[in-house]
């Protein structure tokens, strides 16, 4: 077998076997994943040119030298560094040219997908004649570019629609959805799925078939829709309407521009379609939205590698236990079991355990209905979740996650009981939303094993977990909880111990300002509309209803006790609403009224309950300014207090914990865009008009005096 004498610095290797098949292997030196770069593309271009000119070549196979990874896409640093539209478009055209060379090879080509295949990696395999994926769990195939504020730029918007159809391509491109091997096969994205150990053999067999004309055919109706312009435009119009219901073209232009490119895949010859795709990429890459989304992507990955300065090896969690089968405890146990980790869910009430098991089953059933799980896989996952009324088996767990009622005395009592039953090295992680971890651990025998692990509701959807390091928490315990959060698929942010931690503390200022506006006469729907217009997924009153008004009232009381009226200024209005029996969505009445669990309209009785005067209409900009700047100011105070170490931790936490608009990059990226001098001026004016709660934080004044921002440009 002829092999390349050496591997290029890019990690690209190739050889030709006795049957005339050229094997091209991506294996980026010193890295866990393969990424495309300008250097890799240049090397690949030269290689394809040489292969195309050889008469002894009968086929080409693209593979990876890294287990669990094919190509994870273009190096995001390359995209982030481009600020010029022309340069961005030319970069896309170069990638298109290289992949077109693969498509134009005089011999068939095959992609051997044994792991993650995203972005530019998926566009490379789209240029191949056939695609084979292993059934390994690591296989994920997709085009996530719209999640970064751009569109696929190496031919993805032109080739994918012809491979999987118009509807299928829109589903993948507009959502950034990633498919496992079986779902990719059903979508038509890959031609064959086989066991991992037979991947090379089956790929070579299919490559041989491709030489004789193998081709999967799509349904006639799908091809008819694409070939009849009115039908195609109807599908595109519906997709545009769906996209507009989720976000505006001004805030998130990428999905709407992707629709243009996909339409061109059927309306224009391939060269013109590729040209349009490249021009759109050029226009999107330099936008503020794209830069912010890419920055968030890089920041969340960086925080996954940084356990808050606690540099020590984490312990592997092989078994877990969850105490409390309420909404949060049930959700946490379902998540742990979903990752294949045995978990014991303990409660003192059989009905609570039954409700938690039903809720877990419901989540998995939804995945079965969406064909993301098979019924057999669902049964396997249920097998990892063991409900129990006693403490049996707790001596063997590596971590106990406590999710009982938000009461300090109760949590201390539970910890005391559990310490007697678990091993000395087991970690006790409290899912508290406001209570200091140091207080929970105050009576513990092993306080160094106590850490906060604050999940957000609903657990299976919200990406953030706050990892709270108490005064006595050991580096190993913090590092282990941080690593465990990552294993559960979450984004961990390590925060210092203090009432409310980071997210809830900042969020309380937001809620309090909304409640004050309500007390001044501003309508509930006006305040909520102002913030959804700003980009929040829901307004403050709708969010309070989702959280639960009793939960919000308790959190406000804890924070007011720690920080005074600056944070608890909205307590009287909240108390009046809760005392009337309104708890929010969970009992069908809160700031809004609900029918069958769906929000209908604001409750007209609320105005009288809070003693609001005559209706008051304020400009949307005024409403947004008061609610958003209240959060900005408190975020600056949190940095002063050392709750987190750097601004990016605030921004990642607020985006993934509260839904702060990702296109704005986060709370403090937004503050930098406005400018510290402007912020301090606005806050000072608000303080004079509304009260000392708006007095600019010392850090903000320092930024103005030193002529700097939260982030270095």
Notes on the structure:
Strand 16, helix 18 and strand 17 form a beta-alpha-beta unit. Helices cover about 50% and strands about 15% of the residues. An eight-stranded mixed β-sheet has the order 14-13-12-15-16-17-18-19, with helices on both faces. Helix 10 runs antiparallel to helix 11 and helix 13 (about 290-305) packs across helix 28 (about 645-660). With about 725 residues, it is of the alpha/beta class. The chain folds into three domains: about 1-285, 2-enoyl-CoA Hydratase, Chain A, domain 1 (Alpha-Beta Complex); about 320-500, 3-Layer(aba) Sandwich (Rossmann fold); about 505-640 and about 675-705, N-(1-d-carboxylethyl)-l-norvaline Dehydrogenase, domain 2 (Orthogonal Bundle), CATH 1.10.1040.50. The chain has 31 helices and 21 strands. The radius of gyration is 28 Å and the shape is globular.
Q: Which features characterize this protein?
A:
single chain; 713 residues; alpha/beta; 2-enoyl-CoA Hydratase, Chain A, domain 1; Rossmann fold; N-(1-d-carboxylethyl)-l-norvaline Dehydrogenase, domain 2; 3 domains; 7-stranded mixed sheet; 31 helices; globular; disordered N terminus
Sheet with the most strands?
A: 8 strands, mixed
Q: Give average pLDDT, whole number.
A: 94
The unreliable regions are 1-6
**How many domains make up the coordinates?**
3
From the 3D structure, determine the CATH topology of the largest domain.
2-enoyl-CoA Hydratase, Chain A, domain 1
Number of helices: 31
CATH architecture annotation of the largest domain? Alpha-Beta Complex
Give the full name of the CATH homologous superfamily of the largest domain. Answer: 2-enoyl-CoA Hydratase, Chain A, domain 1
Terminal-residue CA separation: 52 Å
């Amino acid at each position: 077998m002829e092999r390349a004498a050496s591997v290029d610095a890019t990690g690209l290797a190739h050889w030709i076997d006795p049957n005339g098949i050229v094997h091209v292997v991506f294996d980026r030196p010193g890295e866990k994943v393969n990424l495309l770069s300008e250097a890799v593309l240049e090397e690949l271009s030269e290689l394809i040119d040489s292969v195309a000119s050889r008469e002894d070549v009968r086929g080409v196979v693209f593979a990876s030298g890294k287990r669990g990874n094919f190509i994870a896409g273009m190096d995001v640093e390359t995209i982030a560094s481009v600020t010029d539209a022309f340069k961005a478009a030319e970069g896309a055209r170069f990638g298109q040219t290289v992949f077109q060379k693969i498509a134009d090879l005089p011999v068939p080509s095959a992609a051997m997908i044994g792991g993650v295949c995203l972005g530019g990696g998926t566009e490379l395999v789209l240029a191949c004649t056939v695609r084979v994926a292993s059934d390994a769990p690591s296989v994920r195939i997709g085009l996530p570019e719209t999640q970064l504020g751009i569109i696929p730029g190496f031919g993805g918007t032109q080739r994918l629609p012809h491979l999987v159809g118009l509807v299928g391509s829109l589903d993948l491109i507009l959502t950034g959805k990633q498919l496992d091997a079986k779902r990719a096969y059903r979508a038509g994205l890959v031609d064959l799925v086989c066991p991992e150990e037979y991947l090379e053999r089956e790929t070579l067999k299919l490559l041989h078939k491709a030489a004789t004309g193998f081709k999967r055919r799509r349904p006639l109706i799908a091809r008819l829709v694409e070939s009849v312009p009115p039908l195609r435009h109807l599908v595109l119009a519906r997709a545009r309407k769906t996209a507009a219901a989720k976000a505006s073209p001004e805030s998130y232009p990428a999905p709407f521009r992707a629709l243009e490119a996909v339409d061109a895949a059927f309306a224009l010859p391939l060269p013109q379609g590729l040209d349009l795709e490249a021009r759109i990429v050029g226009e999107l890459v330099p936008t503020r939205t794209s830069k912010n989304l890419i920055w968030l992507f890089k920041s969340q990955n960086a925080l996954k590698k940084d356990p808050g300065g606690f540099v020590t090896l984490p312990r592997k969690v092989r078994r877990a236990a969850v105490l409390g089968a309420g909404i949060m405890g049930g959700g946490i146990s379902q998540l742990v079991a979903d990752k294949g980790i045995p978990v014991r869910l303990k409660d003192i009430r059989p009905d609570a355990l039954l409700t938690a098991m039903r809720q877990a089953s419901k989540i998995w059933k939804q995945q079965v209905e969406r064909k993301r799980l098979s019924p057999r896989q669902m049964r396997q996952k249920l097998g990892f979740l063991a409900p129990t009324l006693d403490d049996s088996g707790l001596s063997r767990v590596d971590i106990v996650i406590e999710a009982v009622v938000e009461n300090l005395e109760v949590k201390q009592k539970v910890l005391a009981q559990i310490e007697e039953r678990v091993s000395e090295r087991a970690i006790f992680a409290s899912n508290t939303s406001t209570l200091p971890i140091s207080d929970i651990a105050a009576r513990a025998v092993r306080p160094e094993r106590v850490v906060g692990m604050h999940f957000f509701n609903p657990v299976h959807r919200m990406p953030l977990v706050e990892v709270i390091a108490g005064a006595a928490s050991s580096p190993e315990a913090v590092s282990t909880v941080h690593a465990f959060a990552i294993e559960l698929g979450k984004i961990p942010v390590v925060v210092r111990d203090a009432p409310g931690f980071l997210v809830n503390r900042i969020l309380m200022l937001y809620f309090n300002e909304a409640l004050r506006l309500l007390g001044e006469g501003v309508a509930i729907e006006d305040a909520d509309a102002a913030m959804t217009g700003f980009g929040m997924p829901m307004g403050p009153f709708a969010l309070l209803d989702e959280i639960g008004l009793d939960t919000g009232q308790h959190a406000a009381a804890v924070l007011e006790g720690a920080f005074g009226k600056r944070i608890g200024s909205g307590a009287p209005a909240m108390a009046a609403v809760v005392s009337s029996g309104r708890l929010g969505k969970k009992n069908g009445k809160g700031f809004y009224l609900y029918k069958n669990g769906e929000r209908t309209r604001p409750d007209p009785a609320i105005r009288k309950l809070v003693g609001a005067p005559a209706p008051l209409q304020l400009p949307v900009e005024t409403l947004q300014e008061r609610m958003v700047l209240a959060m900005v100011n408190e975020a600056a105070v949190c940095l002063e207090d050392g709750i987190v170490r750097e601004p990016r931790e605030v921004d990642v936490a607020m985006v993934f914990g509260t839904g702060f608009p990702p296109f704005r990059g986060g709370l403090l990226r937004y503050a930098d865009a406005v400018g510290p001098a402007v912020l301090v001026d606005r806050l000072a004016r608000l303080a004079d008009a509304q009260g000392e709660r708006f007095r600019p934080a010392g850090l903000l004044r320092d930024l103005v005096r030193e002529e700097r921002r939260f982030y270095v440009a």
